[in-house]
């Protein structure tokens, strides 16, 4: 394995970013509404220059396709970064963003908002985030042992919290009526079609990406320490790593990223589990490289899956969560077998 | 409950376009002229005064558009829209729960029609956000369905056919009411789904439709689609079991025979007495065709009131609607009297 230099990190990330760009261009180009590449470019330029009009091109590009792509990138990057973080924190290859019950807490919050305030714009996102935050706090206090986070205790606490919350969700599902039930079903499958809850779409995405950058950035600052912790917590401690602090930062950052993703898109499966593993197989286990490549890789996967989901059975759309599960497993098995051989 | 409903117009006119002298510009302005409308879910939007192209997101809305004779304005519908058969030939925008928003925009609609009984709120929100007006109907009763029909007719520039259709449907319902008002309600189990057993709640339009047909659901639930335990059904012992189906008559017989062979079901008094009735699948769609289905069911449940079609204990498909549509209130009431 070549030594990991900043140049290597940048070149690999640049390569992945180019792939992401290509996927975004494809996603902008295809869809049920026929629109040529030339018209897309003209519409984009006019929109950026503030000369947007109310044409259908504008509605499709700025109203439908771009917000969905922006949401897909955010959700994919958040879930994969979070998954990479949890896999290190719990030292368990099966860990994913939902393993500690954050998504179940978010789902419970979303469901309560559908029961209490069914027609309130933005209530579902806010309630989901509050549910996620409450679960993060509860699991943190349950998962401590001797004053610090213990991987095994944390994992058990998280799994118990997740199944308890899921049981409440199933009970509440019987109380939700028609339209709410449909919304909830799509939410539980993972869905990118819900429009931003505000008229200020740019501000909304700015807010979401700000949270992502802060949380993912915080996790990235621990990446060198995480590499050491993965070789053994005691050894890392002897080498001067503040293990307690690193674990707390990773726990909070990964949980916030999960909460962020599920609040706006529901529970999209597989991405947070598989993308970090695929990136490890492709580029090695160093967290300084794994965190950024997972983020970009997750974005690529979600945008690609959503593009396929809204084109292969057009005009009906498949929820993005169904697409990731469908396509994710075979790709993962292929990579795993190739590595073993 | 059973009162005539006035078409409750919640829209207000507000000319938003100036009227220049030039006639060509004036036509263009008229085309863009809109009125502010609040739909049945409380969303406010501007809808063009001249709606030429409409996209329907639910089978019952498609059916309503055809019933109003406005199919020329129907630019597209969903893959579920199968009544009348011509609706299958229209361009589809996907399934009602997850249509392609782009496919809807590509049909250049002046107005999109949706309903809370099958569509998701997110679809209407997303379309309104990009400036496509979506009128969402929210019918919980037959009266609500009729007023929705009148409002939609008005939005599509067909107030007169709308009022005529609603008046005719109301007249048929009133005739039914007159014929059945002295009869005891039949206690029925309305089966939405057999396994698991799903019935209807009291706030659904189906529960209201049953009341018009002289029947009452034995299940009392606030949920719209409650899952019911078989024990509860045994305890409550319905007079009739009402199944919905679009099956052919032969399959229907098979269906009922299967029911007779199933353990707990076969012990029910209604099954033993042969009181298993098929309502057409129109019964589950809040559209004008629902009145046909209500009439058919009323004839099945109260054969003594409608003696022309009395074959008690035998399952039939409801196809007698046309005949009874022509019967007057007087003759129906007369039949009811002589039956007693």
**Which segments of chain B are poorly predicted (pLDDT under 50) over 5 or more consecutive residues?**
1-21, 309-340
Number of strands of chain B: 10
Number of domains of chain A: 1
By DSSP (H or I, 4+ residues per run), the number of helices of chain A equals 14
Q: Which quaternary structure do these chains form?
A: heterodimer
Write down the overall mean pLDDT of chain B: 77
Global structural class of chain A:
mainly alpha
Query: Cα-atom Rg of chain B, whole angstroms?
Result: 22 Å
Strand and helix order of chain A: HHHHHEEHHHHHHHHH
Instruction: Specify the biggest β-sheet of chain A.
Output: 2 strands, antiparallel
- How many separate domains make up the residues of chain B? 2
Structural class of chain B: alpha/beta
Q: What is the CATH homologous superfamily assignment of the largest domain in chain B?
A: Nitrogenase molybdenum iron protein domain
CATH topology of chain A: ABC transporter involved in vitamin B12 uptake, BtuC
CATH architecture of the largest domain in chain B: 3-Layer(aba) Sandwich
Low-confidence stretches of chain A: none
Say which CATH homologous superfamily of chain A is assigned.
Answer: ABC transporter involved in vitamin B12 uptake, BtuC
Give the fraction of residues assigned to helices of chain A: over 70%
Order of strands, main sheet of chain B, comes to 4-3-5-6
CA(first)-CA(last) distance of chain A: 18 Å
Number of contiguous helices of chain B:
14
Describe the model.
The complex is a heterodimer of chains A (341) and B (340). Helices cover 75% and strands 1% of the residues of chain A. Chain A is mostly helical and 341 residues long. In chain A, a hairpin with a 2-residue loop joins strand 1 and strand 2 (148-149). The model of chain A has no long low-confidence stretch (mean pLDDT 86). Chain A has a two-stranded antiparallel sheet. In chain A, helix 4 runs antiparallel to helix 7 (178-189) and helix 5 (123-142) runs antiparallel to helix 6. Chain A has one domain: Orthogonal Bundle (ABC transporter involved in vitamin B12 uptake, BtuC), CATH 1.10.3470.10. Chain B has helices spanning 23-32, 59-67, 101-106, 121-129, 142-155, 159-180, 205-212, 230-236, 249-261, 263-267, 269-272, 289-301, 321-326, 329-339, and strands at 34-38, 44-48, 54-56, 74-76, 111-115, 134-137, 186-191, 215-217, 240-245, 276-280. With 340 residues, chain B is α/β, with parallel strands linked by helices. Mean pLDDT of chain B is 77; it is low at 1-21 and 309-340. Chain B has 14 helices and ten strands. Chain B is 40% helix and 13% strand. Chain B folds into two domains: 23-167, Nitrogenase molybdenum iron protein domain (Rossmann fold); 183-339, Nitrogenase molybdenum iron protein domain (Rossmann fold, 3-Layer(aba) Sandwich), CATH 3.40.50. In chain B, strand 7 (186-191), helix 7 (205-212) and strand 8 form a beta-alpha-beta unit. The longest helix of chain B has 22 residues, at 159-180. Chain B is globular. Classes of the chains: A mainly alpha (341), B alpha/beta (340).
């Amino acid at each position: 394995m070549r030594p990991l230099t900043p140049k290597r990190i940048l070149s690999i990330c640049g390569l992945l970013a180019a792939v992401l760009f290509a996927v975004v261009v494809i996603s902008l180009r295809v869809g049920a509404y026929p629109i040529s590449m030339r018209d897309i470019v003209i519409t984009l330029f006019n929109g950026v220059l503030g000369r947007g009009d109310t044409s259908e091109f504008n509605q499709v590009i700025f109203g439908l396709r771009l917000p969905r792509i922006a949401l897909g990138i955010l959700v994919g990057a958040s879930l994969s970064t979070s998954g990479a973080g949890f896999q290190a924190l719990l030292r368990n290859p099966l860990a994913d963003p939902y393993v500690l019950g954050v998504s179940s807490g978010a789902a419970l919050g979303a469901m309560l908002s559908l029961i209490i305030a069914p027609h309130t714009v933005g209530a579902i996102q806010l309630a989901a985030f509050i549910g996620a935050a409450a679960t993060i706090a509860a699991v943190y206090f349950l998962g401590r042992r001797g004053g610090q986070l213990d991987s095994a205790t944390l994992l058990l606490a998280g799994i118990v919290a997740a199944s308890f919350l899921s049981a409440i969700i199933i009970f509440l599902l019987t109380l939700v009526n028609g339209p709410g039930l449909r919304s909830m079903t799509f939410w539980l499958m993972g869905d990118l079609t819900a429009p931003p809850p505000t008229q200020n779409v740019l501000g909304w995405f700015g807010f979401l990406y700000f949270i992502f950058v802060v949380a993912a950035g915080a996790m990235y600052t621990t990446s060198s320490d995480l590499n050491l912790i993965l070789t053994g917590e005691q050894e890392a401690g002897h080498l001067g790593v503040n293990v307690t602090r690193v674990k707390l930062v990773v726990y909070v950052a990964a949980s916030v990223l999960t909460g962020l993703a599920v609040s706006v898109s529901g529970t999209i499966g597989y991405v947070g589990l598989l993308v970090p593993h695929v990136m490890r197989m492709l580029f090695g286990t160093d967290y300084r490289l794994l965190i950024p490549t997972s983020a970009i890789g997750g974005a690529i996967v979600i945008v690609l899956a959503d593009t396929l989901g809204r084109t292969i059975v057009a005009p009906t759309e498949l929820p993005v969560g169904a697409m990731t599960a469908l396509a994710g497993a075979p790709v993962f098995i292929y990579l795993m077998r190739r590595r073993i051989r | 409950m059973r009162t005539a409903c006035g078409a409750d117009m919640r829209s207000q006119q507000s000319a938003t376009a100036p009227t220049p002298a030039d006639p060509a510009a004036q036509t263009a302005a008229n085309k863009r002229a809109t009125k502010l409308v609040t739909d049945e879910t409380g969303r406010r939007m501007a809808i063009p005064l001249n709606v030429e192209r409409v996209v329907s997101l639910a089978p019952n809305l498609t059916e309503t558009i055809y019933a109003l004779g406005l199919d020329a304005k129907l630019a597209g519908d969903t893959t579920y829209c199968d009544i009348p058969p011509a609706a299958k030939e229209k361009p589809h925008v996907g399934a009602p729960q997850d249509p392609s928003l782009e496919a809807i925009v590509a049909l250049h609609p002046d107005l999109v029609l949706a309903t809370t009984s099958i569509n998701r709120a997110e679809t209407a929100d997303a379309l309104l956000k990009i400036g496509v007006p979506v009128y969402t109907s929210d019918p919980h009763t037959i009266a609500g369905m009729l007023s929705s029909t009148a409002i939609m007719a008005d939005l599509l520039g067909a107030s007169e056919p709308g009022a005529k259709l609603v008046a005719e449907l109301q007249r048929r319902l009133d005739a039914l009411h007159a014929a059945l008002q002295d009869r005891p309600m039949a206690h029925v189990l309305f089966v939405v789904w057999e396994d698991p057993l799903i019935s209807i709640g009291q706030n659904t339009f189906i529960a209201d439709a049953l009341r018009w047909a002289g029947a009452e659901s034995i299940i009392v639930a606030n949920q719209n689609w409650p899952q019911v335990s078989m024990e509860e059904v045994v305890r409550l012992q319905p007079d009739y079991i009402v199944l919905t189906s679009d099956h052919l008559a032969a399959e229907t017989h098979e269906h009922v025979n299967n029911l007779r062979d199933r353990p707990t079901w076969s012990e029910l008094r209604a099954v033993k007495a042969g009181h298993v009735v098929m309502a057409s699948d129109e019964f589950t769609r809040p559209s004008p065709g629902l009145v046909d289905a209500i009439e058919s069911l009323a004839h099945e449940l109260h054969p003594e009131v409608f003696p022309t079609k009395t074959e008690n204990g035998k399952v039939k498909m409801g196809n007698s609607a046309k005949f009874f549509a022509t019967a007057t209130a007087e003759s129906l009431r007369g039949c009811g009297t002589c039956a007693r």
